[in-house]
Amino acid sequence: VNESQELRWRGWLRLELEAVWLYPIIAARFDDLADEATGAYQMHRRRRDDLLAEFDEAEIDPQAPPISYDIGDLRTAEDARGAAVDLERRLCAAIAALAGVVRGAHREQAVSALRASALQSMSWGSAPESFPGLD
Amino acid sequence: VASRRALLTGLVTAGVVVTAGATRWLDDAVRAVGIGPRRGSRPADVSLATAALADQQRLLRIAHGADDADDAVTLLSEQVRQLGGEPDRRPLQGSLIEELRSAANHRALDAQAAISAELVTVLASMSAGLDQLVFSLDSP
């Protein structure tokens, strides 16, 4: 992680922190979505830990996560699916922005994560896009 | 969020975008920066983009030859245009899902090999889009 990349790494980490906050809430509130949300939580927790390790190695302080996030009412399973799709799509955008400015293992990590989040968004009900993460 | 159009302009400026057919659809703003390889272009990126475009065209032809693949045709046509190509409508026989799966992995490897940041981003995103297409075609 160098200084010029730091902003993009931080953008990705911020969303991974949001994911490890959101998915347990979905799992707790909606029984039908519990397995899927638990799987997503585990994936994002691994990613968060990997990112924190990158920050630690680069001797950069990661930002502390906020206490909560504005996700709306989340009253129905459809609301929950929508929140998950929105989050995974924002993750795709953050990771795509990083992929172009890193090399080697970091780029491999970013490309792999971009593909995984694109698939996650599909599993939550998104439609396929020609360029996930770009507008 | 990175803009596809901005990335395309970057690819054009870097001389990476493949020229075949591009003048038909590039808008004036993008065309104004000029198209085609030029002094300073990175040959490795031009070769990579050319090969990726050829593979995407082949995928598109297979989608044209497949039943009930309108969504795939639309998505693949957009991907071809982003690389500066004119979508090829000639049908070709093939196993669409298997070819898409393979192409998704190839575009990810292409992204690993690319030099320009714009090309890396476009190829990585294309790979993810192909994964999504496989998911949608594979789902009941």
Shape of chain A: globular
Q: Provide the helix percentage of chain B.
A: 55-70%
Largest sheet properties of chain B:
none
Q: Radius of gyration of chain B, Cα only, in angstroms?
A: 15 Å
What's the mean pLDDT score of chain B?
A: 84
Q: Largest interface, and how many residues on either side?
A: A-B, 30 and 32 residues
Question: What portion of residues of chain A belong to β-strands?
Answer: under 5%
Number of helices of chain B: 6
Oligomerization category of the chains in this entry: heterodimer
What is the average of the pLDDT values of chain A?
Answer: 95
Secondary structure tally: strands of chain A: 0
Runs of chain B in which pLDDT lies below 50 for 5 or more consecutive residues are none
- Measured between the Cα atoms of the first and last residue of chain A, the distance is 26 Å
Largest beta-sheet characterization of chain A: none
Task: Flag low-confidence runs of chain A.
Answer: none
Radius of gyration of chain A: 15 Å
Tell me what portion of residues of chain B adopts beta-strand conformation.
under 5%
H/E series of chain A: HHHH
Can you characterise this structure?
The complex is a heterodimer of chains A (135) and B (140). Chain A is mainly α and 135 residues long. Helices cover 70% and strands 0% of the residues of chain A. Chain A has helices at 3-29, 34-57, 77-99, 104-123. In chain A, helix 1 (3-29) packs antiparallel against helix 2, helix 1 packs antiparallel against helix 3 and helix 3 (77-99) packs antiparallel against helix 4 (104-123). The two termini of chain A are 26 Å apart. The model of chain A has no long low-confidence stretch (mean pLDDT 95). Chain B contains 6 helices and no strands. The mean pLDDT of chain B is 84. The longest helix of chain B has 23 residues, at 43-65. Chain B is mainly alpha-helical and 140 residues long. The radius of gyration of chain B is 15 Å and the shape is globular. The interface between A and B is medium-sized, with 30 and 32 residues.
